[in-house]
Amino acid sequence: MLFALLGDIHSSKEDLQAVLAQISDEAPDATIIGTGDLYECTVSKKDLHGQTYPTVEEVIKYPEGIDELLTFPSIYGNQEERILLLTKQSEPIRDFLNDLPEALKIETAVVIHGHQWPHNEAEAWLAEYLPEVHLVFHGHTHRSSFTSDGQSVPISWNDELPVVGSRNIVNVGAVVGFREWVLYDSEKQNVRFMKASKG
User: Fold this and answer.
1) Side-chain half-sphere of 61: how many Cα atoms within 13 Å?
2) How far is C-alpha 64 from the chain's CA centre?
3) How far apart are CA 120 and CA 104, in angstroms?
4) How far is CA 3 from CA 23, 95, 125, 147, 189, in A?
5) Which letter, b or e, does each residue of 18-31 get, where b requires 16 or more Cβ atoms within 10 Å of its Cβ?
6) What is the pLDDT of residues 153-188, one digit of tens each?
7) In the 8-state DSSP scheme, what is residue 20?
8) How far is CA 116 from CA 50, 62, 113, in A?
9) Cα–Cα distance between 148 and 134 in angstroms, integer?
């Protein structure tokens, strides 16, 4: 089965449209899965002082029509966490964000955002909290990367890379600014790092 994994959209409707168009061309039968940070929180982490806002609209970048593109299952990221922290009232968008899971399973793989572990400590965190999982997809850093059994694997766009090690960690990159995503073939057990062109 084919899965298209994308994340770190940060409310960038134009970049998301480009990636979804490429997925439609390259892998129209793929199941799309989001890796979090669908929306951009407009209040930075350093400006958190326990305050709350009366509406979600005050803390979210929310371009018109973006919800119509976000039709695929996703997990939450640190942007969603911050939006929820800054608001308390029930609103459709807040309720949607509040219902997003921390992780999703796709067959034997796990999708998680990546803000859960300290910078560059994915291996240690996953060994402690998800020791049985051999394939993990995440985002968060906005940098596409692939490690297999602790070794960094060079990536080239559109090349098939096998995910056969005992621990494979795939950073799917960012939609915002980079238009990156990953195509995972669970039958062939490989991934392809993809990048939609600009303009």
Assistant:
1) 15
2) 21
3) 22
4) 10, 26, 25, 19, 11
5) bbbebbeebbeebe
6) 999 999 999 998 889 999 999 999 999 999 999 999
7) H
8) 21, 25, 7
9) 9
- Dihedral sign (CA 120, 190, 103, 97): positive
- Residue 149 gets which letter from DSSP? T
| Contact between residue 31 and residue 2 where contact means Cβ atoms under 8 Å apart | yes
Contacts of 136 (CB under 8 A, 6+ apart): 109, 110, 111, 112, 122, 126, 130, 167, 168, 169, 170
CA distance 22 to 43: 31
Q: Evaluate if pTM is beyond 0.85.
A: yes
* Residue entry with tokens 């968060």: 140
pLDDT tens profile 85-117: 999 999 999 999 999 999 999 999 999 999 999
Which residue type occupies 36?
Answer: G
Please give the single-letter amino acid code of residue 115.
H
Helix (H, G, I), strand (E, B) or coil at 24: helix
70 phi, psi to nearest 5 deg: -90, 65
